[in-house]
Amino acid sequence: MTPTQGNLHPASPAKGSLKGLGLAATGAGAAALATAATACCVPVLAPLLVSLLGVSGSVWAAGLHPYSLLILALASLPLAYGFWSVYRRRALAAGQACPAKRPWLPRLALWSAAALWLFALALNMLQLLARRL
Questions:
Q1: What is the full DSSP assignment across 3-56?
Q2: Higher pLDDT, 94 or 12
Q3: Which end of the chain has a smaller Cβ tally under 10 Å, C or N?
Q4: How far apart are CA 98 and CA 114, in angstroms?
């Protein structure tokens, strides 16, 4: 079947392709970085951090505190790539009226990661303001 005869869309990945997995991994990576930035600087999360990482892991995570803004900056890169790849305009095949429907799971993971990133950024900014007072 050629792309102009029906269901195949040359600009969209075939079923079983790794593109959807890559988008989900981008969202998961950004969420992990945002979580790390949040966990290393919020004293309220200390009991959760100790229970998840253990004592030695918590001491290691506390050492990341000076780098929390750098971690957030690095987390914004996969978030930006994820938004670009999920919401960019897709090329249409000849004779196709509209692009294929976008899957909801990568968008959900991406928006969840973005919410975590914004939460981590807000907590970092509040902590910086509290230090100045």
A1: GGGSS--TTSPPTT-SHHHHHHHHHHHHHHHHHHHHHTT-GGGHHHHHHHHHHH
A2: 94
A3: C
A4: 28
